[in-house]
Amino acid sequence: PCLLCCLQLEGLCSFLQLSTCPEHLLVHFCRWLLALSPDLSYTSAAILAEQLFLRRVLSLSQPPSRHLMAALASFCSKYSQPFCRVLVAAVLREPGQGIEQTKLVCELVEECLEPDCVQLVLSQVLEVPLSEKLLPVVQAVLGRQEVLPPKLFDLLILTLCRQASAFTTSLNYTKLVTAVLTIYQSQVR
């Protein structure tokens, strides 16, 4: 897509005030997006993910409303790759993000994302320094019991080993390591 098209889409989102529209309307808008034919391009979907959800998710101070969750699930059902690249990456990069953002990412991993996007989330987590806040996200990924590509699995093991000293008193870290040893016992050597 051309730069002009991207700018036009961003301008349209701004004109329609999509980043601040009521959440019940957001659900209807996402359903309408899913019905479009042909599908949105990756770039257009990424722009919409940012415009529709980024501000809302980063500002969560309590659990998301059922309308917001419905809109997120709807959008993820068709455009999960651009969604993960924009929204999940932003949540992981923002060190000040709270528990609600982490819970939201965990819920999306557990209930909405396709296996390739679950792997994408794990690779995004492993690109940033592991923290107590991110351990539940890794736990949610492992809870899916997806087969991980060898390279990603090795990176997970390496990261857990390298950062073990930072989590000597962490119950979440202990649970995570136990889960890895249980779920992937045939791959651990």
TrEMBL record:
Transmembrane segments: none annotated. InterPro entries: FANCE (IPR039685), Fanconi_anaemia_gr_E_prot_C (IPR021025). Residues 8-188 form the Fanconi Anaemia group E protein C-terminal domain. It comes from the Eukaryota. GO terms for cellular component: Fanconi anaemia nuclear complex. GO terms for biological process: interstrand cross-link repair. PANTHER family: FANCONI ANEMIA GROUP E PROTEIN (PTHR32094). This is FANCE protein. The lineage of its organism: Eukaryota, Metazoa, Chordata, Craniata, Vertebrata.
